[in-house]
Amino acid sequence: MAGVTDPGTTASAPPPPTTLGELRDGGAAFRPVKAEIRANLLARLADGEPTLPGIVGFEDTVVPEVERALIAGHDLVLLGERGQGKTRLIRTLVGLLDEWTPVLVGSELNEHPLHPISVWAHRQVAEHGDDTPVGWLHRSDRFGEKLATPDTSVGDLIGDVDPIKVAEGRTLGDPETVHYGLVPRTNRGIFSVNELPDLAERIQVALLNVLEERDIQIRGYRVRLPLDLLLVASANPEDYTNRGRIITPLKDRFGTEVRTHYPIELADEIRLLHQEADVSWRGRGGGEAAVDAPIVPEHLAEIVARFTRLVRESNHVDQRSGVSARFAIAALETVAASAVRRAAVAGETRPVARVVDLAGVVPASRGKVEFADAGSDPDDERELEVLDHLLRQATAQTFRARCAGLDLTGLQEHFTGGETVESGDLVPAAALLGQLGTVPRLAELLGRLGVPESEQSAEQAAAAVEFALEGLYLTRRLAKDTDGGRTVYGA
Q: H/E element holding 388?
């Protein structure tokens, strides 16, 4: 994700290969994965470091609950509406594993050299003794994930008999004829089941032993594998009654249930947007001139954040479904893309998003919202009207919050003689400012919108002026006429 370095995927050089004897002589010891996570978590807490970096808005609510669960050694299930960061949180747990861990070379189960669990591993150690080869596994390879779907089988998760191994001459009673599934292959790591209620109930039963007895059963084989892993699941609350449910014995085996939520504070919503929205791309336009990465002014990010919160709170939206954080992220990326498109057409080298770029958000984001009173007509224009109204409301709220007490009468007086100002998604900044001439108190307006002096430019000025014009219109101090991509402000 943009703006975050995941400690689970950033690797230093691995330690050199070694042998079982050298590992033992070096003082190495086997440590269960939950003890490993607990120790690393406590070390981060003691050092004052973020335990789950990149997780926004959960610092005082969800994160402490997850920390307590991990310290207690609990498997956990995360409950929350779509787009609340459940999967992101689960993947961030990988950063609490040791960066490198020793494994027996060739083991399908990531077995620790000092703690073999399979028939194959015991035979390797018996044959080679202290010369048994040892390799190193990075923590990013100690994470397994399965999106629960109705067609998921026990073989996918746990394992099944491999007919090829049987054909090679092994007997059906030989444990080495088993092809292990995703869960045992994530031994000594973290395994995640996303959307757990979508998993058929008879398949959920296969996880009961994994959570309690820490072993697996495959087609009646006496396979006693003391699996060492942390199991984390995610679920949408309405899935308990709609698409499926988590069976009671399985819910009982999870040590902790954590309820997630959308960002509570507006500042967290904006911070999440800046972190996750990918607007760092650049392109070419205006002949061979390079188009720089777009700038999205802070007031536009605030409008998108307020818009998202208003949509979540709207009576027209299905509250059980929720409005994903991806709704806001995609909206901000759409705004940035509109600015880049304008720069490419107009030959500008520094795209800066403006209020006019918000127009593309409503049609682009419509499919991400489940409406409570959705009728049979998929083209019901009332949905677009609801979103458009909420976007105007978000813009007005942002204008009042950022420009309260700012004297804009000088800008407003420009229109007293019947003059108009035309804007649009393809109108460049210079053309917009040229219609206004000198803008009174422009520096104060830019300061209110948080534009530092070093970044003040014609494009930033145009973005600020257009926001002021839109605010004057929304507070009924200017008129506005919109026709397609053309917007005209007047007295």
A: helix 381-403
Coil, helix or strand at residue 361:
helix
Domains in the chain, please, with CATH?
Answer: 18-259 (3.40.50.300), 266-490 (no CATH)
Rounded CA separation 444/29 (Å): 64
Contacts for 147 with CB less than 8 Å, ≥ 6 apart: 194, 195
Q: Has this prediction a pTM greater than 0.90?
A: no
Report which residue type is found at 171. T
Which tokens in the block code for residue 459? 């494009």
Q: Which of 314, 301, 340 is nearest to 459 (CA)?
A: 340
Round to the nearest angstrom and report the end-to-end CA distance of the chain: 45
Cα–Cα distance measured from residue 268 to residue 85, given in angstroms and rounded to the nearest whole number: 13
Q: Please tell me the total number of residues recorded for the chain in this structure.
A: 491
CB 232 within 8 Å of CB 223 = no
Task: Supply the pLDDT for residue 258.
Answer: 96
Contact present, 285 and 343 (Cβ < 8 Å): yes
Q: Which residues 6+ apart lie within 8 Å of 164 measured at CB?
A: none
Cβ burial 81-96 (10 Å sphere, 16+ → b, else e): bbbbbbbbbbbbbbbb
Taking residues 459-463, report their average pLDDT: 93
Count Cα neighbours of 215 within 13 Å in the Cβ-side half-sphere: 11
Quote the pLDDT of residue 110: 95
